[in-house]
Amino acid sequence: MLQTSKQLRQWNRQKGEQAEEMSTIGSLEGFQPVSLQQEGDEQPSETDHLSVEEEDPGKDPVPMPMSRQTSVTESTLYPNPYHQPYVSRKYFVTRPGAIETAMEDLKGHIAKTSGETIQGFWLLTEIDHWNNEKERLLLITDRTLLICKYDFIMLSCVQLQRIPLSAVYRICLGKFAFPGMSLDRRQGEGLRIYWGSPEDQSLLSRWNPWSTQVPYATFTEHPMKHTSEKFLEICKLSGFTSKLVPAIQNAHKNATGSSRGKGLVVLTEPIVIETYTGLMSFIGNRNKLGYSLARGSIGF
Question: Which of 160, 119, 115 shows the shortest CA–CA distance to 140?
Fold first, then answer.
């Protein structure tokens, strides 16, 4: 019995010593929590947390340098009006070198055929008598207005229409207008060039959407006008008009005999497009079928 009580006292003594050792370990000054910072991560240094009370009271408090600088994102108040990459990439005419190749091709063709002096190139949208949009390159020479259908995918001239400047007798500038019962309407302004009388146009060519016997042509600005400064110059309708009018006037002065025109009349009036239902133009214009456009992949 005495041996049992003695063993019990020794066991209690050992438990007390273990508890004292654990309390001593918990109060060690060298024990610090370990930070799980990974290599390369930026963390504030110890000097970032120094307070003013720890500074010398005789000195003015000096702000301590921070190890991490606050990032500031500057917003663009005036974005670049010519920056439309996602839209412009669809049009092959905006691909690098496409418009330059087209100009060189047409320069070479004119040099071989007529030898006339080119006064300027423009990239505009033609609107036919059924309100269909068509991408066109226009050239003005000393005696001719050339309307070119150019394939910017294959980089080749598909169709070239020559209009003598001395035959142009009227130019109309104004907003587009449609008959009162028309379901197919368009906004904006355009330019119409007449080299023949619309009254002399046959009924068959007037109601034929593929007719090439229309004695006038209607143009508006190309949708890629604001892609870059270069396209702003060649797609501006006012710039084309300012070159076309004096070229026509000079052609009338220099014309002789039967080629002498009646003179040029420039009017500001609505440009009427006689379409009513317009289902064909609705589908074509919404899908930009008249432009050399990337239309996505078909294969897998």
Answer: 119
Tell me the Cα Rg of the chain: 40
**pLDDT at 66 exceeding the cut of 60:** no
Helices of type H across 43-117: 85-88, 98-113
Tokens of 72: 């500031």
Of 286, 262, 267, nearest to 191 by C-alpha is 267
CA distances from 93 to 53, 101, 136, 137 (A): 69, 10, 11, 11
Could you tell me what percent of the chain has a pLDDT over 70?
68
| CB-CB neighbours of 180 under 10 Å | 6
- Cα gap 239→235, rounded to integer Å: 8
What is the pTM (predicted TM-score) of this model? 0.70
- pLDDT of 138 over the 90 cut: yes
Task: Name the nearest CA neighbour of 123 among 203, 44, 15, 235.
Answer: 235
Residue 17's pLDDT band, with cuts at 50, 70 and 90, is: low
